[in-house]
Design brief:
The protein has 139 residues and is of the alpha/beta class. It folds into two domains: 60 residues, 2,3-Dihydroxybiphenyl 1,2-Dioxygenase, domain 1 (Roll); 62 residues, 2,3-Dihydroxybiphenyl 1,2-Dioxygenase, domain 1, CATH 3.10.180. It is built from two helices and eight strands, in the order βαβββαββββ. The strands form two sheets. Strands 4, 5, 6, 7 and 8 form a five-stranded mixed sheet that branches. A three-stranded mixed sheet has the order 1-3-2, covered by helices on one side. A hairpin with a 4-residue loop joins β2 and β3. The longest helix has 11 residues. The protein is globular and about 50 Å long.
Length: 139
């Protein structure tokens, strides 16, 4: 019987590994999972609950830009989100260091009481990610 446990890792392909290392490790402050050796053209970033692998590709075709409006974006993986304790503090810490997708944070509320405050940004390759302040209510 199949018993999936958790997402262990995800991969990002890029023609410029160092540029994404500078963003995820340098700007966002995420530690390396394995020692980084630039000449090997890959990196393993520890996001806390999964490992983000960054691998070089020789294909430099840019990603289609995502928006914060799911109904308008093409099919496929959209984004990933990093949980923060305080969205306003996180936004202030990243201001001037990232390219925001929206001018202001977004709030989403579910009738159960669960709600999220979040703000999307792009990494240097155009992949969309969020900082999010979740407020979850158990049903």
């Amino acid at each position: 019987m199949l018993k999936l446990k958790r997402i262990d890792n995800m991969d990002i392909l890029t023609p410029n590994v160092q540029r994404l290392v500078d963003f995820y490790h340098g700007v966002l402050g995420l530690p390396f999972f394995l020692p980084y050796q630039r000449e090997e053209h890959w990196a393993a970033i520890d996001t806390g609950n999964l490992t983000l692998y960054i691998f070089r590709t020789m294909n430099a075709t840019p990603n289609p830009r995502r928006t914060a409006v799911n109904l308008e974006d093409p099919p496929g993986f959209d984004s990933f989100a990093f949980e923060v304790d305080d969205l306003d503090d996180a936004v202030a810490a990243l201001e001037g260091k990232v390219r925001w997708v929206t001018n202001e944070p977004i709030e989403w509320r579910h009738p159960s009481g669960t709600h999220y405050r979040y703000r999307p940004m792009f990494d240097p390759d155009g992949n969309m990610l969020y900082v999010t302040e979740p407020h979850k209510v158990q049903c």
